[in-house]
Write a structure and sequence with these properties.
Layout lengths: L3 E7 L6 H9 L6 E7 L6 H11 L6 E6 L6 H9 L7 E6 L3 E2 L4 H11 L26 H6 L12 H10 L16 E2 L1
Parallel strand pairs: 1-2, 1-4, 2-3
Antiparallel strand pairs: 5-6
Length: 188
Amino acid sequence: MVDVHLVVTQRNRARSIPWSLGTVLSQAYKHLRVTYVDDASTDESRQVIESVLSGATAPHPSVHLVTNASRQGVIANILSALKDDSDDTVAVLLDGDDGLAHPFAIDRIAYEYTQDVDCWFTYGSFLSWPDRQVIYDGAYHPECLKENHFRRWFWRCAPPPLVSSWATALGARRILPRRRRLVLGACQ
């Protein structure tokens, strides 16, 4: 079995926490550890998180709640959460307003890593919620690239250069650049 560490980072997402955290708590995978980071939210996120965790009736993975007194940012939170993981641990990153598509999403991700020992990195496609339509993952418009206006254009899945820079920031030793394996695990 592969050890999986799911890191969820969020700030001021109180409205989406019950659904998002619910999808995390519903995971069937037995070797799952969860770090849920509240990055100094100014809304009622902390209370909602604690309410969801205390009211969970189904068996759920071990959840370590981190509440920052001051804002640290996504990368710093991810690095802090993963710093003590072994090289064999599979890290799954999820934003606080996203969720996992079904209770076996982590099982599927872990399965992919057991099938190919050279697999070092995967990233998922996204579905819109609640209609579950696949969000277009094609190339960005040339004007978007030229002007660096990524937030003004329709969402695309993370392009390989961005994925590579994230992996480098997280300390991955190597990326298989021409190998893109999509593991459907998140919906937005």
